[in-house]
């Protein structure tokens, strides 16, 4: 099992950062333009039971990624888990905490790539680098947008 964490400080109130994540178009906003990802549907907001379906392209092959929210503690955290997709396991926890008048946003992911015994030593670094690129982008967008809203 692999773990990934990315955290940043946003100069905006906790409630502002949470509400930004509740936007109906949040997935389109936070998907990096270089990623071959299509948002197919999003139902239920951030609540437990909410569903999100993506189509991701692994080269020319489209793969469905379906995730369900399994935890929601407004405005502190929500968790989604892959129920269908390219990973053998995927759990993504989004955490929001007050930090000296600002908001600490932390994304924590536990995941397992297929054929882990062979693929993790060979490709684990690559997946980690792609996650770091994606979450750097997501946090930069969140910071920019929320700091403008909170100003």
3D structure, described in words:
The chain has 151 residues and is α+β, with helices and mostly antiparallel strands. The protein has one domain: Alpha-D-Glucose-1,6-Bisphosphate, Chain A, domain 4 (2-Layer Sandwich). Helices cover 32% and strands 44% of the residues. Strands 1-7-6-5-4-3-2 form a seven-stranded antiparallel sheet. β5 (77-84) and β6 form a beta hairpin.
Query: What characterizes the major β-sheet?
Result: 7 strands, antiparallel
Query: What's the CATH superfamily, by name?
Result: START domain
CATH architecture: 2-Layer Sandwich
Total strands: the figure is 7
CATH fold-level topology: Alpha-D-Glucose-1,6-Bisphosphate, Chain A, domain 4
Q: Count the helices. How many?
A: 3
The helix fraction, in percent, is 25-40%
Instruction: Name the overall outline.
Output: globular
How many domains? The number is 1
Task: Give the H and E element order.
Answer: EHHEEEEEEH
Structural class: alpha+beta
What's the arrangement of strands in the largest beta sheet?
Answer: 1-7-6-5-4-3-2
Chain-averaged pLDDT: 91
Report how far the terminal alpha carbons are from each other.
41 Å
Indicate the low-confidence ranges by residue numbers. none
Radius of gyration, whole Å? 15 Å
Q: Per DSSP, what share of the residues sits in E-state strands of 2 or more residues? A: 35-45%
* CATH class type: Alpha Beta
Organism: Phormidium yuhuli AB48
Protein name: SRPBCC family protein
Domain Coenzyme Q-binding protein COQ10 START: 10-134
InterPro entries: COQ10_START, START-like_dom_sf
């Amino acid at each position: 099992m692999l773990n990934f964490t990315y955290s940043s400080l946003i100069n905006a109130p906790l409630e502002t950062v949470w509400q930004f994540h509740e936007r109906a178009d949040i997935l389109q906003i936070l998907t990096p333009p270089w990623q071959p990802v299509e948002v197919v549907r999003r139902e239920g907001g951030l609540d437990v039971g909410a569903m999100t379906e993506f189509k991701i392209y692994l080269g020319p092959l489209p793969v469905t990624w379906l995730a369900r929210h399994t935890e929601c503690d407004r405005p502190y955290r929500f968790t989604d888990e892959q129920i269908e997709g390219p990973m053998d396991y995927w759990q993504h926890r989004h955490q929001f905490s007050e930090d000296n008048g600002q908001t600490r946003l932390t994304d924590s992911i536990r995941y397992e790539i297929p054929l882990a015994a062979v693929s993790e030593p060979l490709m684990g670094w690559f997946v980690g680098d792609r996650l770091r690129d994606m979450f750097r982008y997501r946090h930069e967008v969140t910071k920019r947008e929320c700091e403008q809203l909170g100003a």
